[in-house]
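PROTOCOL LOG
Step 1. Enter all chains and additional molecules of the complex.
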Amino acid sequence: MSMLRIAVDAMGGDLAPGAIVEGAIAALNEHPELMLILLGKEDAVRAELKKYKYDESHVQVVHCSEVIGMAEPPVNAISKKKDSSIVRGLTMVRKGEADSFISAGSTGAILVGGQVIVGRLKGVDRPPLGALIPTEKGFSLLIDCGANMDARPEWLVQFAQMGTVYMKHAMKIADPTVGIVNVGAEEEKGNALVKETFPLLRACPEIHFIGSVEARDIPAGAADVIVTDAFSGNLIMKMYEGVAGTLLKVIKGTLKSSVPGMLGGALIKKPLKSALKDFDASRYGGAPLLGLKGLVVKAHGSSKAVEIKNAVAQCALFYEEDVNGKIKLLMEEQAEKQRKAKKAAKEADASKEQS
Amino acid sequence: MSMLRIAVDAMGGDLAPGAIVEGAIAALNEHPELMLILLGKEDAVRAELKKYKYDESHVQVVHCSEVIGMAEPPVNAISKKKDSSIVRGLTMVRKGEADSFISAGSTGAILVGGQVIVGRLKGVDRPPLGALIPTEKGFSLLIDCGANMDARPEWLVQFAQMGTVYMKHAMKIADPTVGIVNVGAEEEKGNALVKETFPLLRACPEIHFIGSVEARDIPAGAADVIVTDAFSGNLIMKMYEGVAGTLLKVIKGTLKSSVPGMLGGALIKKPLKSALKDFDASRYGGAPLLGLKGLVVKAHGSSKAVEIKNAVAQCALFYEEDVNGKIKLLMEEQAEKQRKAKKAAKEADASKEQS
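Step 2. Run joint prediction.
Step 3. Record the structure below.
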């Protein structure tokens, strides 16, 4: 295998370029076989690079004069800002000049650019964003958590198929279970999308479908692959953050209001912190946008160095295991199956008309 | 005002009839002006009643020979089991023999029965289930959290209007703010439903609309009335439960694994418990099904006595403040407005054709 080239958007995210460059260099120092491509304002990037020791022959800086802001309309930004780090990074992936692109910048621009610039794999209807979320058992892949706000049943089936490949090969889970987010365990429950998707998932031989998963059971680790539309996926991700944050505030406030609470609070501070670290959604790095002709990873907007480091490591594993090659094969098989089924249906119709 | 008659389903919920009868009697002892109507198997209900002291002239037991199970298909159950506590209770509300009905039984049966037996107020398209959820600031009304899985924009507008009346009069919030659940703060974000609903809410003079609310900000208390479809509402409710439960398990596990953690854990046990009590969704009683010709309240399936007691108290306040009368008036005004707007549009069309 030739050297893996990972392009990193040095300008994206709340803590860019400092935390981005720091994390990328930390990953390089752990995986010295990588080639790192940092995209952004060259002066700013080089100023950050000066702070670290690393193998200079494995770092390339690509100057980009433009930056896409978080609030810019994505389609407009992608078509106008040709010299932004996001457009340049995605273009490198499309041209085969980089194997993957990581950005903590505008989600909208990355989603639109991923499809428009990198392009979809054959047979893929809509690339979903999959995020690893923490559970009592470890983690689950929540897919889609950001790309397709209004989804169709057949898209969700593809999310389940691609998510299964990802968990099996990039995350080494032998037989990943798949559940669909629902409001109850029974098949007849749910909204129209879930009701239509449920039988398709059950009939899908490429996945290990275990049925409906209630939101309440997601943090406990109800399934390895949690399939849903991006609107619901976003709600789930954000509720993790919101409930945990508020609960900790409530606990802190109460502990401060009594002497035993204050004493106990001081004693548990350290163990509590380590517990919460385990339950931190960001430690798994970024969210891969699956189903593209190359790997595009969206890192959290508030990513610190460690998250960028993890995202780079994730990209390396993704390539070692040829996850995209496996997704490509599966999706091509599916497209072929559908083509044959359609042809057979057409022929059946034709013979019916003749008789 | 005549005596308020509250019908309670003694057979509904995981802890029925024990916890239900206990809670209802506790409410009666606090509000001795109520008339309590307990519906269920008479023997079982009377056996529970024997345990308590109360004013017997204020308790009526209505024997019902049937019980609707949690897993029964709702429409079927409502049409077949005429002598169940749910059908009998709802029928009493329709006939004016009871002012409200509380049940911790099958949500589906209560939702279907509420519409079919009690009936909608004039002008109400779809009655939503509204639940009070705990926040850092107190509580918010999450509406719809269970009734309409696939909603339309104009229904969400009615949820916002009815929710505003409820929070203003039943919960005494002077100028309730209204937010719509969304995946970002900007108006152009969201799924099709949110995008269509947003301008309608902004143009609605009866509510204090503050725009999009991200799921992350709900536990912090982002708005008094949180409008959404029932699928998303259910996700939000269940994520409260799931994240809090898992987080506490993770914290407990970590505290047990170190000596300072164990010591600290022992000290904080009591204050922690009281903090979590404040953050317990059930303490506000049940979820009202708004927009019906009488008050129907769904209590949580796992309701304990205290929750039933709170639900009964909630019904009392609802009637004291004539919340349903105010909702009725508002919805009739809205229907009249729409009728006039349609008529004007028709006349405009007609005069256009003539000229």
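Step 4. Note key features.
Chain B touches chain A through 64 residues (CB under 8 Å).
Residues 323-354 of chain B form the longest helix (32 residues).
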